[in-house]
Amino acid sequence: MITMACHCTGCQQMTSSAFSLSSLFPSAAFSITSGEPVIGGLHGSTRHFFCGHCMSWLFTRPEGMDDFVNVRSTMLEGSRTYKPFIETYTDEKLEWAFTGAMRSFCKFPPEEKFPELLQEYALKQE
User: Fold this and answer.
1) 90: left (phi over 0), alpha (psi -120 to 50) or beta
2) How confident is the model at residue 71 (pLDDT cuts 50, 70, 90)?
3) Which among 67, 62, 64 has a CA at the least distance from the CA of 4?
4) Tens digits of per-residue pLDDT, 23-56?
5) How much of the chain, in percent, has pLDDT values that exceed 70?
6) Please, which residues have CB within 8 angstroms of residue 9's CB and are 6 or more apart in sequence?
7) pLDDT mean over 59-66
8) Which positions ≥6 away from 85 have C-beta within 8 Å?
9) How is 48-76 classified by DSSP, letter by letter?
């Protein structure tokens, strides 16, 4: 649906990097085909799932957004094509970190702006 980079300090800690990369999918289009992920990282109402074997961060089920799942883009085949379209939490961004995202937000985009962002991203994929 859309690709993103998150610069929040939580993502920085969980990735040991400057930001996390993810792609938003409808929950109905997502399934676990092998293994059983474990909850890890920052514990709270937003659940972050990791591989129980290698402990890589695989996906996140955001609080209050049960219809969506955020998959770490680098876990997908062809991950080079998942360039972030938006970046979030730029108010916590490391000053030298650059993603090339087309849209930037201090926190998350306002909910009313999301349909417009999804449409803009979809048009860029055609």
Assistant:
1) alpha
2) very high
3) 62
4) 999 999 999 999 999 999 888 888 999 999 999 9
5) 100
6) 92
7) 90
8) 2, 3, 4, 101, 102, 103, 117, 120, 121, 124
9) EEE-TTT--EEEEE-TT-TTEEEEEGGGS
Please tell me the distance from the alpha carbon of residue 43 to that of residue 29, in angstroms, as a whole number. 25
pLDDT reported for residue 66: 87
Reading the block at residue 23, the tokens are 């792609």
- Compute the average pLDDT of residues 13-18: 94
What's the CA gap between 125 and 114, in Å, rounded? 17
- In SS3 terms, the chain reads as CEEEEECCHHHHHHHCCCCEEEEEEEHHHCCCCCCCCEEECCCCCCEEEECCCCCCEEEEECCCCCCEEEEEHHHCCCHHHCCCCEEECHHHCCCCCCCCCCEECCCCCCHHHHHHHHHHHHHHHC
The two structure tokens encoding residue 77: 């085949």
- Round the average pLDDT of the chain to a whole number and report it: 94
